[in-house]
Amino acid sequence: MNKFFKAIFxxxxxVGSVTRTHYGRQYRQDTVxxxxxxxxxxxxxxxxxGVAQILGLVYVxxxxxxxxxxxxxxxxxxxxGVTGTIVFGAANWLLWRSHADLANNWSPRLxxxxxxxxxTNGVFRYIRHPMYAAHWLWAVAQALLLPNWxxxxxxxxxxxxxxxxxxxxxxQLMLEQFGDEYQEYMTRTGRIVPRIF
Length: 197
Ligand code: SAH
Known about the structure:
Layout: H1 2-24, E1 32-35, H2 40-61, H3 74-102, E2 111-113, H4 130-145, H5 154-178, H6 180-188
Antiparallel strand pairs: 1-2
The structure holds S-adenosyl-L-homocysteine (SAH).
Residues 98, 102, 105-107, 109-112, 118-119, 124, 129-132, 170, 174 line the site of S-adenosyl-L-homocysteine.
């Protein structure tokens, strides 16, 4: 059973990485018109996300992290694994859709390009940060699929501080660039959870 959910984690990680690489190739740095320098702490959390995925791979391919295994009853392992599979599927779907909707407005940095447009359609119609939402789901899936205190929780350790540090800065940049249009967009959308009322 453990092997099966380890394989699911590998597939999810691979699909997510292919999506990122594919859409990342469209990024054109030469058209940037307004850029924010990001503090070392933000870069550290981004680096930590990469480390978290490497820890996942170490857990899958070796027994080095087995001392930190979390022993759950069999039925709970199944429940966590199946839920993790569904959540990783949702994460990858959302990552793909948010990249497709954001198209060439995507950037790995906090910046806007000369021909930047405000995207409010597709998944952006419901939430302002679907890509971060996808990473939250990814980290939750990692915790559910890998029953290990280090490899399982590493994704959450990276994404939680990154999200709370970066999103307010990004929204500030968007407000400066798009003014009332973004302000109005904020009133009808949630950050990572859709506004129901
Ligand atoms: N926070 C978004 C996008 C992350 S990519 C998400 O989670 O899906 C980061 C870049 O996207 C930023 O540099 C910013 O310029 C751009 N961006 C963020 N929201 C945008 C929007 N609604 N329309 C266009 N560009 C956006």
